[in-house]
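Q: I'm teaching a short session on how sequence maps to structure, and I want students to see two examples side by side rather than one. Could you give me a first protein with its sequence written out and its structure tokens following it? Keep the formatting plain so it prints cleanly on a handout.
A: Of course. Example one:
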Amino acid sequence: MTSFMNADFLLKTETAKKLYHEHAEKMPIIDYHCHINPQEIYEDKRYNPITEFERVNGSFDGEQTLTMLIGDCALAFERLPLEQDLDLLRNILYSGVWTKWISAKQRNQPNRRNDPND
């Protein structure tokens, strides 16, 4: 029996497998609706959407956006056919992200008293 998500995941026909593995697999994923500089696409520049949003707009409501993103991640995660290390993965997804966020937020506000109820 093959694994659920092998190299041919979603490739149903031999033609699809041939086209993907001989051509598309090596090509970059490009979002043609974005406004990324073509030179940066060519250079395969990596983006952090959070810092990029803050750079362009001058501010970022991280908590609201992170809540939305984690919600989307949680929905997708719970649909995965996982059987191993579920408690660990849920801890990272549901608690670890917020622990890291609060820690970073406190580091960036050195004049504030560290209040555990914040």
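Q: Perfect. Now a second example for contrast.
A: Example two:
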Amino acid sequence: MALIGKKRECRSAKKSYKEFNPIEKITEWDTPILIIHGGKDYRVPEEQGFQAFTAAQLRGIKSEFLYFPDENHWVLQTTKRTIMAAHFLQMAKRKPFNIKINNKKLVEYFNQL
């Protein structure tokens, strides 16, 4: 009896994976994207980061890919965090993102760039 419940849970999980898998939504992508990936990321396989970047490039979406072979899911080294921030700010400078920012200080900061 418990096996039937497990099968049902498995089907439900597969449906969720497909529904929330970003690669299933690439036809809707239209915003510049910065993909940051660590080689020791055990949550998201590195090939998924490469695939997302390739998909964005093939769709003509402005995109950048930062790969840190010695980092995991969270980039922890200060130097690499600085690199991430610099890349993000450069992208934000080139083309504004289509998001609404409610934080007044953040808006002022980006207006100064």
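Q: What should students look for in example two?
A: Point them to this: Residues 2-20 form the longest helix (19 residues). Also worth mentioning: The two ends are 62 Å apart (CA to CA).
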